[in-house]
Specification:
alpha/beta, Aconitase, domain 3, 3 domains, 5-stranded parallel sheet, binds FE3-S4 cluster
């Protein structure tokens, strides 16, 4: 059921772009049986050429030239190109041009040029219970689970249309009953190590699919960064858009996440499950030389940057290895003013802002064997870019990429 204003929008009363956007939302809403459109408070869109290709360029340019404008605060995921370092990262001109068209289109539409998958750190921070429309699985997981805002895993196209109209069809995780936990994970792994958050996310994602898992046994001191890494693993190896960590995430603190019902399944997760997943995420023959080590998936936070800085003390990057760290421009600039960036750059680390390895032209660079401390990167990059992968924690990554000065 549309309001008079929504009908006017659908009839072209607010211009071409709004009509196209409303039409797409109504069709999606109908296919999911949505009964109404909800007003929204925030949008996070994707605009990386590595995933959207020419069809994405055409669609966003059409909306921009049709007079579309973002109605609510709208941030943008990393792009496939770091425009500040195109020469350093040898980005082919044709690829750069395509990404530039996408960038121009979203800027014309009035999106915030955040180029970050962690907008919740500063630029786009929704409140508990707000209906929002976010794309990018790790950001969606964080917004739903850690903040308690409400969004589906919004596909490309629907994200920008929601921003232009300020509306989204009510289905999926916008409906209270669909946010109920359905599977319980009893985590019994002893002490949590750094990599365990990523790996546990991957294990939970694999067993959950698109269901809503409830996690018992995360340590009380778990940080937001660790929840970010857990959610990225669960959202990429599975399709988890929302999880509840008992005693920690807001919807599991305010009420029973199972809403009085029994979980459909209960899994006990042990150290063996994590070890098995670590082995699964390493696809490379150990004899094959590693030529790239990468961190920052999801993009590195300031705390994570500090930790790399400390671990890198007195070490420099080996001549035969590329050690690339991905972060947002804000974190890079803050790190710079705190004296964390320059020593690492002098030690041979390459920083890249506003993009990441997964959506970059890794194949064009000719790397054969990549190492990372991110379960999401380890899971996605081999299939997208046909490279061999080694998965290991930050200490191991630094050990492989560097030697003592
Ligand atoms: Fe972010 Fe890129 Fe990883 S968008 S979650 S750093 S794949």
């Amino acid at each position: 059921m549309l309001t008079d204003e929504e009908k006017k929008c659908l009839d072209g009363g607010f211009g071409d772009a709004s009509r196209t956007a409303m039409d797409l939302l109504v069709q999606i809403g109908n296919s999911f049986g949505a009964e109404r459109l909800l007003p929204i408070h925030s949008v996070h869109i994707v605009a990386h050429f590595g995933s959207l290709h020419q069809a994405g360029v055409d669609f966003l340019e059409k909306l921009a030239s049709g007079g579309g404008k973002c109605k609510v605060p709208t941030t943008v995921d990393p792009l496939s190109v770091d425009f500040d370092r195109c020469e350093q990262f040898r980005i082919p001109i044709w690829y750069r041009e395509k990404q530039e068209r996408l960038k121009n289109a979203v800027e014309q539409l009035g999106a915030i040029p955040s180029w970050s998958c962690t907008p919740y750190y500063s630029l786009n921070v929704p409140r508990y219970g707000q209906d929002i429309v976010w794309a990018e699985s790790s950001a969606v997981s964080y917004a739903n689970s850690v903040i308690g805002a409400r969004t589906n895993r919004t596909p490309f196209g629907m994200d920008i249309c929601a921003s232009i109209t300020g509306k989204v069809p009510e289905f999926g995780l916008y409906i209270e009953r669909n946010r109920r936990g359905t599977i319980l994970f009893d985590v019994q792994i002893g002490n949590f190590r750094e990599l365990d958050y990523h790996t546990l996310g991957a294990v939970v994602g694999r067993l959950s699919g698109a269901k809503v898992p409830v996690i018992k046994g995360m340590p009380p001191g778990t940080t937001n960064d660790q929840l970010k890494c857990f959610g990225a693993g669960a959202g990429s190896v599975g399709s988890v858009a929302l999880y509840h960590a008992l005693g920690m995430t807001p919807e599991a603190r305010c009420r029973d996440p199972f809403d009085g019902q029994k979980p459909e399944e209960v899994f006990t997760i042990t150290r063996e499950d994590l070890n098995e997943m670590e082995d699964r995420l390493t696809t490379a023959d150990p004899q094959l030389k590693i030529d790239m080590v990468t961190m920052g998936c999801p993009l590195l936070s300031l705390e994570e940057l500090k930790s790399v800085f400390v671990k890198m003390s007195e070490r420099h990057v080996k001549r035969e290895i590329h050690f690339w760290i991905y972060l947002s421009r804000e974190v890079y600039n803050l790190g710079k003013s705190m004296g964390l960036v320059e020593p690492l750059e002098k030690a041979g680390v390459w920083f890249s802002t506003g993009t990441c390895a997964t959506i970059s032209p890794v194949k064009l660079w000719g790397f054969k064997h990549v190492m990372t401390n991110s379960a999401k990167c380890a899971f996605v990059v081999p299939s997208e870019h046909e490279v061999a992968m080694t998965y290991g924690d930050t200490d191991r990554c630094i050990l492989v990429a560097t030697e003592t000065a």
